[in-house]
Amino acid sequence: MIDVESALNFYRVMAYIVGVMLLVLCAAMVVKYGFDSDTMVAIVGPIHGFLYMIYLVAAINLGLIKARWSVGYLLLVLIAGTIPFLSFVLERSVTERVRRRIATAS
């Protein structure tokens, strides 16, 4: 179960990082379209994209390999990195689900 716990911790870190970067990207989009300056989007966009790919790997590692979630739940978790605030909400759900599974396995 140590593998599951470490996969959960990595997922949680990535969920927060991707969630924050997505909010920064949304602010960059406001600057781009509201103030006609696309510099911030040009910087933040690729960073968020790269971090989102790491988030996908973390979620697949946790959900598909370690915790064995259903495909529907895994897809919801994967999409959460593209909808503002959803990664924070699902991080809580994922943490509770995995910790319950660890507790029942012990």
From TrEMBL:
The keyword Transmembrane applies. It is a multi-pass membrane protein. Its main location: membrane. The chain crosses the membrane at residues 13-31, 43-65, 71-90. Residues 8-95 form the DUF3817 domain. It comes from the Bacteria. It is found in: Cell membrane. The keyword Membrane applies. InterPro entries: DUF3817_TM. Keywords: Cell membrane, Membrane, Transmembrane, Transmembrane helix. PANTHER family: MEMBRANE PROTEIN (PTHR40077:SF2), MEMBRANE PROTEIN-RELATED (PTHR40077). NCBIfam families: integ_memb_HG. This is DUF3817 domain-containing protein. It comes from Microbispora bryophytorum subsp. camponoti.
